[in-house]
């Protein structure tokens, strides 16, 4: 991750710490990169409650309670699943805010309706409606799609602060 992303993560953690809030992540296409970035910062244990890497559909169901029929109906890369991932991470942790990320980083796996670079995000916060964000990054290469997804996850976590 870039020095700018680390600085941004540190500022985010400082604000969460000051407000007494904790974060949980549920990551598929980013494979834990959001949690890794946040935990690179000293003192992050005061804010990062836990991270779930739910790469497979089974992991989404078993670890964070995404209904298998929801995945079957909409596909793992979809708005309903991203929302359910965030809500499941929130429900299965002691966090106040949770972000869920599911997408197609490429270079394979895309379809006409779900192309490479499509990423869905969910952001759940106790006492608030779950937010959804959809991004179409395009075929930027796997590393760049994942990096852009981490940046957007940080933006959602910042947005949750109001």
Automatic annotation (TrEMBL):
SUPFAM superfamilies documented for this protein: CinA-like
Pfam families: CinA (PF02464)
Domain (CinA C-terminal) ranges: 9-160
InterPro entries per UniProt: CinA-like_C (IPR036653), CinA_C (IPR008136)
UniProt protein name: CinA family protein
């Amino acid at each position: 991750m870039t020095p700018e992303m680390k600085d941004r993560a540190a500022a985010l953690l400082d604000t969460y710490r000051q407000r007494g809030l904790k974060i949980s992540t549920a990551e598929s296409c980013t494979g834990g990169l959001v949690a890794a970035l946040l935990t690179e910062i000293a003192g992050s244990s005061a804010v990062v409650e836990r991270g779930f890497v739910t790469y497979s559909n089974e992991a989404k169901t078993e670890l964070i309670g995404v209904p298998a029929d929801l995945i079957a109906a909409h596909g793992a890369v979809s708005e309903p699943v991203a929302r359910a991932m965030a809500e499941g991470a929130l429900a299965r942790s002691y966090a106040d805010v949770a972000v869920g990320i599911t997408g197609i980083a490429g270079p394979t796996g895309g379809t006409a309706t779900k192309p490479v670079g499509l990423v869905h995000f969910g952001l759940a916060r106790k006492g608030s409606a779950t937010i959804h964000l959809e991004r179409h990054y395009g075929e930027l290469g796997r590393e760049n799609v994942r990096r852009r997804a981490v940046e957007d996850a940080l933006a959602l976590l910042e947005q949750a602060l109001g």
